[in-house]
Design a protein that fits this description.
Length: 246
Amino acid sequence: MTTLPFTKMQAQGNDFVVLDGLAHDLPTLDDAFVRRITERRYGIGCDQLLVLQPHPAADVAMRIFNNDGSEAANCGNGLRCAADLLMRRSGGDSVHIALADRIVQASRGARGVRIDMGAARIEDQTGAYVDVCIGNQHRVCFEATEEFPRDRNIEIVTGQVADHVYIDIIERGAGRTPACGSGACAVATAIWHVEGHRRPQTIAMPGGEVIVSGDVDNLILEGEVQRVFDGLYMLPEARQTVMHAG
């Protein structure tokens, strides 16, 4: 194998390289490979690498790698992108995707692709922030008065008008990103917890908006996604062969 087929996708500017392990053999997914393929100047470039693999109880399993090589447990925007790709290929209206700790269902919605994200859990709360776990860990900051931890995603609420919330994102392993689907779910969970209501929230991120509805036992994330392009990635050993041949 000298080249690897891939699909580049994005949701609200949060971009992904998708590798289909159901249809193609994959190289070893070590840190060096992940860093190389996700690097924006010498690779394809993305916030996260999404790897689709077989699963006995779902249509597909999805592994998520940040562009620093670390592995993530959840990614709402990545799920919506992978679901859109899979539904287009199958012609179906829904798909089940397995993560490390849950199986989620995706379907077509009025505003794009809709994911039933599963349950969230409040882990901690102060006057300045709420810690939320949705498979991956988030800190939703209402006041940026403390040093941000590095072991979780950070969502900073910069404004709120009724149920329209504006946030910035610092994603563990990827840095500042235009959007984060699980982060949008964490923000809605934190606001519901603090304000004591369960109204749908429009979460506006630098890259665009999503809608979070449902409740803490089953968060529903919905928004548009885009397939950007398909391509062939030349694997490192193939590059070396070409160089030596010259």
